Amino acid sequence: MTFISGFKPVRTRNRFCGLCLLLTGLWLTGGCEPASNPDGPSTTGGPSTSGKLRIVTTCGMVTDIVREVAGDRAEVEALMNERVDPHLYKPTRGDLNRLMQADLVFYVGLMLEGRMTDTFAKVGRAGIPVYPVAEGIDESYLLEPEHFAGHYDPHVWMDVSAWSRCAAYVTDVLCERDPEHADEYRGRSAAYRAQLEQLHEYARTSLASIPREQRVLITAHDAFGYFARAYDVEVRALQGISTESEASVDDVNQLVDFIVRRKIAAIFVESSVNREGIEAILQGVASRGHQARIGGELFSDAMGAPGTYAGTYLGMMDHNITTIVRSLGGDAPERGLFGKLSAPEHP
Description:
The chain is α/β, with parallel strands linked by helices and 347 residues long. It has helices spanning 15-27, 60-70, 93-100, 117-125, 160-177, 182-208, 225-231, 249-262, 276-287, 313-327; strands at residues 53-57, 74-78, 104-107, 130-132, 216-221, 234-239, 266-270, 293-298. Strand 5, helix 7 and strand 6 form a beta-alpha-beta unit. Residues 1-6 and 12-47 have low confidence and may be disordered.
């Protein structure tokens, strides 16, 4: 792997578009955008006094794999809290300060954190290496939805095997950055990726236990494309790839028609997406004489609370898989693959 110095432009179907985004950021001379997310961090980070790598990450899924691989060799700080939507996140001045004090930065890429593009460019211009973990996935594996023209679907963590490749990419970066401790990084990575392989197999077999006619996942926004392909699940969503998109009346009516026609019994809300759209779908379905329920809350663009099992990538996906399987008539243990899930809740 080649060490990347500075900002790595996001991958899109159109590489010229990615280059333009980079050049735009490099020509910026103004300050960071003012804070627009009241839930975002506002305090300024400080330089590490422990001699460890200081790493700043964006969303929880990236933070978790970096912490798993880095272990106690790094201080890893996340910019985004649980339930924060990375599609809509705009960096604060505190975020810029933290990024500028980092040894290196990891983010998803593929335009997931689209409103941070200029900030990443500014940080890269200052000489701080910025790494999109989705670079660990070959472009031939990425999805190119028609309604997300010019860009790949960024929700790569929904396929556990794909996210494992991102963990391998993080490992390569850390080994090159800190070769003295490369064996430690590789050892932790191997143990973690073995757990990911176990989770991937659990998803594959348990989701296959759902009867074919019931194996339909209805969600608030289109974050489960890789999940659908990896685990042979039909997926329909109210909103598009990005939560910045808005569902029209026609979108609502079409989804209501689909649910009634297919006699779908359960649909799902998402922790980082307003549930009003899904509730409107339920009302529309009821008006057509069909009863459907909310099968559970899924984690899509954000994990659970820090310090909880669902606040880890393993826990997030174990929760999603188990909740979907049990709600749609398949066979999965109530407490999930590792027996760590809380008792199921039905919003």
